[in-house]
Specification:
Length: 263
């Protein structure tokens, strides 16, 4: 895992509201899918749409599971560590999602129960509460930031898989973009390249001369959703460039060796 830098601050009330609101958006949209569409292949290889829906529920449900378990003595990780910790658990997560998809006949009803339970647990648990997540201990506040990333990524997966147009809450998109931008700066520390993801994030990264005045010589710019897709391996650098989804100027403005950030 790359060396840690200081984690940026997030507005707790906005993050909590955004997590619940985004999951409500997903549940409402999924309620309109019939059995055939749920059984269809998703945009994720080897996953049915139903598996993806179950996976989103598990990601939200993990908030309650963390709060209900005994609190660890201290937090081992911050939100900024999360993008570098997911790869070893990918297969276990996939298996758990498929198992839930098989076990729950009505994922919409199950999802409503998950949302209600999480809302109740959040009402009584402070951000400082340390919880035991799959990848290690973390404060609830930081864990909720990681849930915005999970929800942004998988809402987009669901849209691409079904043709739905589920909105992504602005705060979910903002927090996800900022978390991944900071992770990029951790993975490739430096000041040679300025990465712009308007309107949410600007970071400098990559070793080399740091630019301090005027227009930087190496600039990369893209939309939040394009950045999230690149950072999570949903698309690749060459494809995004060819589709004019990324603007890259300067001899160092090639991030193909740094992306994706998450396995």
């Amino acid at each position: 895992m790359p060396p840690r830098k200081r984690t940026r601050s997030y507005d707790s009330a906005k993050i909590r509201a955004a997590v619940l609101a985004q999951y409500a958006q997903v549940r409402e949209a999924v309620a309109g899918l019939d059995a055939e569409r749920l059984a269809a292949d998703s945009a994720l290889g080897g996953w049915a749409v139903r598996d993806l829906v179950a996976h989103i529920a598990i990601g939200v449900q993990s908030v309650s599971r963390g709060v209900q378990r005994p609190a660890p003595a201290k937090a081992e990780h911050t939100a900024l560590d999360f993008p570098f910790l997911t790869a070893p658990f990918a297969e276990v997560v996939a298996e758990g999602s498929r198992a839930l998809a098989l076990a729950e006949a009505d994922l919409v009803t199950f999802g409503k129960a998950v949302a209600d339970r999480v809302a109740k647990d959040l009402a009584k648990a402070p951000d400082e509460r340390v919880i035991d997540a799959r990848f290690g201990s973390i404060t609830l506040g930081d864990f909720l930031v990681t849930r915005t990333l999970e929800l942004a990524v998988h809402t987009d997966d669901l849209n691409r898989s079904t043709g739905l147009a589920i909105p992504i809450e602005r705060e979910v998109l903002a927090a996800s973009t900022r978390l991944l931008a900071d992770a990029l700066a951790v993975k490739a520390p430096g000041g040679a390249v300025e990465v712009r993801v308007p309107p949410f994030a600007v970071v400098q990264c990559v070793e080399g001369p740091r630019h301090t005045r005027g227009t930087p010589p190496n600039v990369v710019e893209m939309s939040p959703l394009t950045f999230i897709r690149l950072a999570t391996g949903r698309t690749d650098w060459a494809t995004a460039l060819d589709a004019a989804q990324v603007s890259a100027s300067g001899e160092r403005a090639d991030l193909s060796e740094l992306l994706p950030l998450m396995g």
